[in-house]
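Why this split exists: single-chain examples teach little about how molecules sit against one another. For that reason, every record in the complexes split bundles all components of an assembly together and asks for one structure covering all of them. Below is a record exactly as it appears in the raw files.
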Amino acid sequence: MAGKKQETRVDEGRLIERAQQGDADAFARLYRANVQAIYRYIYHRVNDAHLAEDLTGDVFVRALKGMAAYQNRGKPFVAWLYRIAHARVVDYYRQTSRRPVESDIEIEPIPVGADMDRSLLRRQAARVLREAIARLTDEQQQVIVLRFIEGHSLETTAQIMGKNANAIKALQHRALRALAGRLSRAGFDVEAILSGLSS
Amino acid sequence: MTDFDTLLTDCLDAVTSGRLTIAECLERYPDFADELKPALQVGLLTARLKKPEMSAEAVSTLETRLRAAMEAPSSPPLRLIHLPPALGRLAAAVLIAAALAFGGGGLVSASASSLPGDPLYGLKRLWEAIILALSPLTGSLDDLWLSVVEIRLDEVEALAAADRLTPEALDDLYRAMAQAILHADADSQARALRVLAETRVSLSRAAPPPGGETVHQALLDWIVPQVESGQLLPLADVEPPQNIPPTATPTGMLTAVPTATDTPTLTPTDTLTPMPTATDTPTATFTRTPTPSRTPTLTPTATFTPTATPTPTLTWTPLPLPERPTDDSAPTAAPSPADQSISTPIVIPTWDATLRVRATEHAIQMTQTAGPPLTPTTGP
């Protein structure tokens, strides 16, 4: 497992070198390998598919411009992209003065029953969760997306967010508690939804 | 971090990977079950939901755009202060030579320590624009822009110390920094990060001016992750976030407007048009010797034409140049003019990259708009 990861990292390092020398194919491969992760990261932070596409485009344009200065220090390339994405999202909210208020969400109750269409339940739950995540603080959003949506390890999440693992553990705890609290206050029954998805 | 944080992390990893169920985790840690349960449920639900994906069409469109950007010839060097295209490098070189020949070096030098709002500040910015326009003759753009950032930072610090910090000064710092990072390469990255670290410290100390809270915070939010990660984050858009009205970017056109007085004086107006011409340069300010008239003329062309053949003995002021620093750190104090004076007049300097804008800050001074009120010497 570790060997495969190392191999992947070496391949990525070569692609980065080639991209820095102006190889469009190499940059395109880096792009394709990471575009969905960056899109999801942004999507969960802005909760708008079209806007997320636009901002994802901006992230890669910035990455392209910054390739010459990028220094490969053995960290995943996506960590740099996440940082650019984070800066872009912050920038966006600052420029537009639009930001989801850090308040409770109001949702329609999701009926969960034995005859409930599971895919519909999944979609509705996903929508509610996205809204709730978008109302967390910046760092709480980041840790939720990186840990549970992207499935990154604690260490990788720490690298991406520029914190140590213990800080991520504490942040993750606060984020989950905040998210659970918001969902609960909105009448969102997580346990029932989980059962509905499992049945 | 608490022990609970570690315990929760272990349980989350076990639950989301399918090694344990939530119930099994709660059984293992009954004392923490009440706190663990909602966190594990939310974590698991988040992990199980379908992940949104960017449409294949959008992915493909963006890839095409990126490839086109990579394969396109590199864009021409960006100019700091919207120097008009008409003012090419040759014209800029002529400007420098003319400024030196007509004694502008002294004025330019005097503008070194000017701050936004000072009469000579415009001259400082104009010179800056010329130096950038003359890249690579004057140095590589990455070094030049970093020097500009250092100058802007010095200005912000000085303004903050004098309680004169304005949103516009932060705005200028933002723009310069965006350009510096955009042009930074592997060689200049270390210097860029050092400048960013200095900026972070300065901004943390300086309270944002009224109306400048947004750009102040934007700068910090952009700088801090770069300093902490050691990676530069170029912006696609150098426009700073605005909560201040956009500022015009002066380009150094000096327009003399004679006033109707018995003793004619020239009052410069700050003309913020981006289309200066070579003839609207400060050279005229150093040579005019108007004839007193009781009925002064209001026609600038009649009174404001620089003499075609300057007499160097009267007006030329040597442009002081500092010694090249022995390392790449910026000098903390301006070298004394006695150490800097050059003996050969009217030379377009072949500035080295590390000297240029900042190291020679007190020598190669730059400008943006009009200088001080122009009071010509009254002729006999």
